[in-house]
Amino acid sequence: MNETAEHRKENILIELNNNGKVFVAHLAATLEVTPETIRRDLSDLEKKHLLKRTHGGAIPFTGHLIEPIFEKKRKMELNEKQKIGKKAAKTIKRGDTIVIDTGTTTLELCAAIENVTNITIITNSLAGASLLTKRLEQKYFSGQIIILGGAVNSAQYSIVGSLTAQMLMPFKVNKAYISCGGISEQAVSDYNIEEVNISKIMMSLADENFVLADHTKLGKQAFYKINELSHFDNIICDVGPDEKWREQCNRNQISWI
What we know:
Blueprint: H1 5-19, E1 22-23, H2 24-31, H3 35-47, E2 51-54, E3 57-60, H4 70-74, H5 78-89, E4 97-100, H6 104-112, E5 119-123, H7 126-137, E6 143-147, E7 151-153, E8 158-160, H8 162-168, E9 173-179, E10 182-183, E11 187-190, H9 193-205, E12 206-212, E13 224-228, E14 234-236, H10 243-252, E15 255-256
């Protein structure tokens, strides 16, 4: 194969996700490199908390890559998420068509939408759809809400799967609002591959993409990549960018809100 180091590491993570464990000897034979090269790759991935090394191989990392259950996670950095939600809500204009993925930060966006008319909101968030329906009834905004169908992930109050993906495909929207588990200089990532797949499709439908991330997500990398950072138009965060992030945003023509 003679793959680059990054492609090799990506293949290691894919096999780890599929099988629950990887072995140095098998990886070396499959990827056509030496066992020493695989050990170096595993060490690099362990430093990023993407796996845990064991004798002769590696297993999934069991620390922060395990996403907290929804209600517990909702309480974490709540004030920061509410600030982000209010900022994000201000970017929604009259007549907008928008799509919102599932997550506790995008839920605060749902809680903050107000004083806009004739908007269409598509979401795969059960919690978000419930909150939006109440706010629509209370006339905080006017328009319609489209709830995507599919398989329910009860732990995260989300709707995911192939049916969800199929329902999304006919739409074209102005804006997509995406939550994340981590945002690095290279990519935006999250914990659940099925939710990530839906977020990717949502981004492909939108003219403008927003990622919502509180300061604890900065510089972090979750297990599954949603997209390269350069595919986002805006980052909405509770803190301003430092010099490193300012340079990164300028390089990729990203607005930091």
